[in-house]
Amino acid sequence: MNKTYLYLTLAAFAVLAMQSCDLEESQKSTASHSTIFSSETGLETYTNSFYNILPDGSSGVQGDAMSDYSSKNSLSTYEIGAYNINTATSWSWSNLRNINYFLVNNNDPAVPQATRDNYNGIAKLFRALFYYDKLVVYGDVPWYDKPIAADDQKALYAPRDSRDVIVRHILKDLDEAYNTISATRVTTNSNRVNKWTALLLKSRIALFEASWQRYHANTEYTAHCTIPTDSLYEVAAEAAKTIMDNGPYKLHTGTKYNGGRGAYRDLFTSEDPQTDEVMLAFSADAKLGMADINWWYNSSTYGPHLSMNRPFMKTYLNLDGTVYDEKNADGTYKNFVEETTNRDTRLNQTIRGADYTCRDKTGNYLPTLPNYRGLSLTGYQYTKYVMDDVAYDDHSSNTNDVPLMRYAEVLLNYAEAKAELHKITNDDWSRTIGALRRRAGITGGDLDHLPTKVDTFLQQTFYPNVTDPVILEIRRDRAIELCLEGFRMNDLKRWACGNDWKTVQWTGTYIPALNAPLDMNGDGQSDLYVSTDKNYKGEYTAIAMSATPVSELTGAGQSILPAPGDPKGGYLLFYYDPAHTWNDNMYLYPIPQMVITRNPNLTQNPGWK
């Protein structure tokens, strides 16, 4: 399918020469001022460049590579605690200069005021997004709303503005974007922002800052915060509610779940966005090789072998709405079939369950187990974004579009904000968390009324400081619904749960026996052989109706653990990297030392030196 690649670099006449990240670089235009700003075409072409701020077809699906619910075979310098002020290099402001240059110069009376206001609104939306990223990464940063001249010493050597200043400016920009952006309907293929995009960002950012202030209260991270926390939660709830009541979006439904595919997974594997729910998307194009999703997730030679962990797998509810128990009534562990049957269908639309099928090289859909040999570290192989065809597995050829903003987040933001305000009602719950669970096939439990019982496993494993069952259940669904969409580390940071990222065990699926062929998907055929003997050389043919041959599970970091209390003496897959660490200074990244050397008025973040 041919698609328009909408995240364009500027056309030649509108490109600004701004390659350096240094603030003192002067603005230079390769085209005349009038060519750019004297027509709507020029304004539109210029604002196309702002979309380069957004994730692309690769980074858009790798945002949760660093999270507590996954294991992987390689860690970054940040993850092992080796990141420091001398290795930090991410202090870049080129995108902001591009936006501010536009805002300062978009004043040609030849273009109608309403048209200029529309494009200014788009620019302010992206400026808010730019500063939100800076807020999350660095906390306090200087606020700039115009290009900086090379001789503007005051601006060049400005100190950091407080979080309050940044947040107030962000929210003001988003209010102006909402009021001036002319697009009110779903844009073509959801490739362009509209006024509802501004409201979703407003809800997201207000919620982030409200919870940051609440859960980091009385620490260095909130020393200069004066905006009332509840007022920020109110802003988040109001923005979300406006979309819910007046926007053109709804949850995507209608596709019945079968074989790892359903309405939820439609959102991530469709060649065109499901625009009823997807509010902003990245469009892939196979000819341009812009998306390597299958390659990253399904290849043993590319990607970090990202795999879901058992503790997170256990947070998915049963279809009847009850809490999942990993053991049967007789105390034995549930096998892989039982683990992935009669569960919240988002589980089997996020990983390969026992019922998963994939198109093989002959074009037939066959039952396909996780790739246990050299790829799936825990037995829970992610498949949420993956096209179910092995033809896409070894190169950048994905054609499925990547959602960047979804209506589901609106519901989650609203529910969380109202719960934190202690104002959430049964109707609010039914319309948000209940709606998400109904789409996931859940038929009972807390669908239409607020939960009253704490799930002790969820609490003790992920959120030990939360005692409110409503907030716990909202966090359950937020993690599940937005899994792999790039939210998790920011959520853990704003909730002050960074240590959870380190402590959650990297355990996997239940293995009933060693040194014997195992039937993992219940089809009567042996399809896995687990051996602790590294010299094991047994030969097994490919399993009928499966693309995975019987294999030996050995390899660096991958092993087994006795399943605690199992009367049958079974095991759990286990992957462990002892270098994984967390320190509280990691809630914010350090400002690079080279930046502070250039501008000594900038102070360093807590704990970095």
A few lines on this structure:
By secondary structure, the protein is mostly helical.
Outline the structure in words:
The chain has 609 residues and is mainly alpha-helical. The protein contains 20 helices and 11 strands. The strands form 5 sheets. It has a 3-stranded antiparallel sheet, with no helix packed on it.
Distance N to C terminus: 51 Å
Number of helices: 20
Structural class by secondary-structure content? mainly alpha
Low-confidence stretches: 1-22, 24-30, 539-555
What is the typical, i.e. mean, pLDDT?
89
For the sheet with most strands, the description reads: 3 strands, antiparallel
Radius of gyration from CA coordinates:
25 Å
Shape: globular
Query: Based on DSSP secondary structure assignment, what is the total number of beta strands?
Result: 11
Please specify the SSE layout and strand pairing.
Blueprint: H1 33-37, H2 40-48, E1 70-71, H3 94-105, H4 113-138, H5 153-156, H6 163-180, H7 195-215, H8 229-246, H9 263-269, E2 278-282, H10 293-298, E3 307-308, H11 310-313, H12 336-339, E4 357-359, E5 365-367, E6 402-406, H13 407-420, H14 426-431, H15 433-439, H16 456-462, H17 469-481, H18 488-494, H19 498-503, E7 507-511, E8 517-518, E9 528-529, E10 558-562, E11 571-575, H20 593-598
Antiparallel strand pairs: 1-3, 2-6, 4-5, 7-11, 8-9, 10-11
Helix pairs in contact: 2-4, 3-4, 4-6, 4-7, 6-7, 7-8, 7-13, 7-18, 8-13, 13-17
List descriptors:
609 residues, mainly alpha, Serine Threonine Protein Phosphatase 5, Tetratricopeptide repeat, three-stranded antiparallel sheet, two-stranded antiparallel ribbon, 20 helices, 11 strands
